[in-house]
Design goal:
Layout lengths: L2 E4 L5 H11 L7 H9 L5 E10 L2 E11 L8 E8 L6 H17 L4 E7 L3 H9 L3 E12 L4 H18 L2 E4 L8 H13 L13 H8 L9 E6 L2 E9 L7 E7 L8 H15 L4 E7 L3 H10 L2 E12 L3
Parallel strand pairs: 4-5
Antiparallel strand pairs: 1-2, 2-3, 3-4, 5-12, 6-11, 6-12, 7-8, 8-9, 9-10
């Protein structure tokens, strides 16, 4: 029988062992996981559990949602990860029953679940529960070692193009603007709305934005911005966990400055810096409908790896 126990910060190492057994291709960092668990805000519900069997952790469960506005559709999230030896449908049903029931009791109308592309057991389990495919976030990997010379040359080309346009490139750490975090917050809020999605993007407060920016995988000296005068018009950074792979955290360009290669320029700075730091590969993911970013990835030489699939279940009575 599977039992749920609410996590405490000291469980991060055990939780990451579960994550790694569930998806060995993506090792997880306990420090990053522990920090993620601390980001809790009054406008959201987030519950996290270790799943135990005979006193041993064999899974992880999450359920949560924002507190909805009166007229908006009510989406809520379920996440269930079991190590291979514990992937038995009857026991798993009871865990998901509990997660779903709590979300429904609080008013959810549509449940959202996500898994890795090609995760056969997860997908079959969700589909048997009435979840249906929604959309795919395509994942990509770029071999920095094999493409080193080409990528550094392209970074030089981007630098020249930005100088010609009067666009200044630099790291967040080297910028002395006291309003920089607020400007990045506003840029993030504007550009996130342009990312294709079914579930509406959550609106972060400035304080929550700062909380996510305090993650151990984020480095301000590896976060690149583009300025047009006093304006911050583009931003890109890679996430550098102590354990696991280096992934793109975010890349964006202000609507007023698109079509000028500025987002590509800050992305090239992150890749060039990663090469100089000895990183051999980086990963990224983008929604299947995000044509501009998919085009950039293909042009840079990324190759496809299994992405992340979202499923929806309508629970309106």
């Amino acid at each position: 029988m599977l039992k749920l126990r609410a996590v405490v910060p000291e469980d991060a190492e055990v939780a990451c062992q579960v994550f790694d057994a569930h998806d060995p291709d993506e090792p997880q960092d306990p420090d990053v996981t522990r920090h993620r668990w601390t980001v809790n805000t009054p406008d959201s519900v987030r519950e996290r559990f270790l799943i135990e069997q005979c006193g041993r952790a064999v899974g992880f469960a999450f359920r949560g949602h924002k507190w909805w506005e009166p007229e908006e559709h009510r989406f809520a999230f379920n996440d269930l990860r079991l190590v291979p030896v514990a992937q038995e449908r009857t026991s798993a049903q009871g865990v998901l029953d509990r997660l779903e029931a709590a979300n429904i009791e609080e008013g959810a109308e549509t449940l959202v679940a996500r898994t890795r592309e090609g995760s056969r057991w997860d997908i079959e389990f969700l589909e048997a529960r009435g979840y249906r495919y929604d959309r795919l976030s395509k994942a990509w990997e770029l071999d920095l070692a094999a493409n080193r010379d080409r990528l550094l040359a392209e970074r030089d080309d981007s630098r020249r193009a930005m100088r010609e346009q009067g666009i200044a490139l630099g790291t967040q750490a080297s910028d002395d603007d006291p309003e920089l975090v607020q400007k990045l917050y506003r840029l993030n809020a504007e550009t996130t709305l342009d990312v294709p999605t079914t579930v509406p993007h959550s609106t972060w407060s400035l304080e929550e934005f700062k909380m996510w920016g305090a993650s151990p995988e984020f480095r301000s000296d590896r976060s690149w911005i583009a300025r047009d005068g006093d304006e911050v018009v583009a931003w890109s950074f890679l996430k550098y966990p102590r354990v696991g792979r280096v992934w793109t955290g975010y890349t964006c360009s202000a609507r007023s400055h698109r079509g000028r290669g500025i987002a590509r320029a800050v992305k090239m700075e992150t890749l060039g810096q990663a090469i100089e730091l000895g990183v051999t590969s980086v990963r990224t993911d983008n929604d299947e409908a995000n044509a501009p970013m998919l085009h950039i990835n293909e042009k840079l030489g990324y190759h496809r790896i299994p992405g992340f699939v979202s499923y929806l279940k309508d629970v309106r009575q």
